[in-house]
Write a structure and sequence with these properties.
It contains six helices and six strands; from the N terminus they run βαβββαββαααα. Strands 2-3-1-4-5-6 form a six-stranded mixed sheet, sandwiched between helices. Helix 1 packs across helix 5 and helix 4 packs antiparallel against helix 5. The protein has about 190 residues and is α/β, with parallel strands linked by helices. The longest helix is centred in the C-terminal third of the chain and has 22 residues. The protein has a single domain, classed as Pyruvate-ferredoxin Oxidoreductase, domain 3.
């Protein structure tokens, strides 16, 4: 089985970290083949940023998929750019705190996550990507949630131990949203 994931937004939103956490968790906890293909503009913050992740039981032919099973969107410009990169029947995750535009697709599952709003409510806007990651894992069940969270806490916690509780809370709130969305789509 192969799962292709596209994460898109703007620099500074934790797009690349989201992809890295998926890959690191899969590397440490599964025997899957993994690819990670990041892309970002030259601006340090505010430019476009995206990454492609593939987790597969078989060798992966290309790190950048033409179409993805899942697309995670953190900004309006990413929605415009990547909405059509999703297979029909796939899942489109949108941070509704940032994305004011609505998708045009009617042949996909939409998972709305107010990640930025949740992050601000719990104390730090920088944990919005962990909230989206939690929603993604809760909905897809691609990787064990406890393993993803442990990887996130290890990777991020090494640099910012004071954010550990916030990261965990953001991930868990996202998990609740993703799990509820999956139950609603079944």
């Amino acid at each position: 089985m192969e799962n292709t994931i596209l994460i898109g937004g703007i620099g500074g939103q934790g797009i690349l970290m989201f992809g890295q956490l998926l890959c690191q968790t899969a590397l440490e906890t599964t025997d899957k083949y993994i690819t990670y293909f990041p892309s970002y503009s030259m601006e340090k913050r505010g430019g476009t940023s995206d990454c492609y992740v593939t987790l597969s039981d078989e060798p992966v032919g290309s790190p950048k998929a033409e179409k993805s099973d899942y697309v995670v969107i953190f900004a309006n410009q990413a929605l415009k750019k990547f909405e059509d990169a999703l297979y029909p029947g796939g899942a489109l995750f949108i941070d509704t705190s940032v994305c004011t535009e609505k998708p045009n697709r009617t042949d996909v599952h939409i998972v709305e996550v107010p990640a930025g709003e949740i992050a601000r409510e719990i104390g730090d806007a920088r944990v919005a990507n962990l909230c989206m990651l939690g929603a993604f894992i809760g909905y897809t069940e691609i990787l064990p949630p406890d393993k993803v969270l442990a990887t996130a806490l290890k990777k991020i916690g090494a640099k910012r131990p004071e954010l550990r509780a916030l990261n965990e809370e953001a991930f868990n709130k996202g998990m609740e949203i993703g799990t509820a969305a999956k139950a609603a789509h079944v």
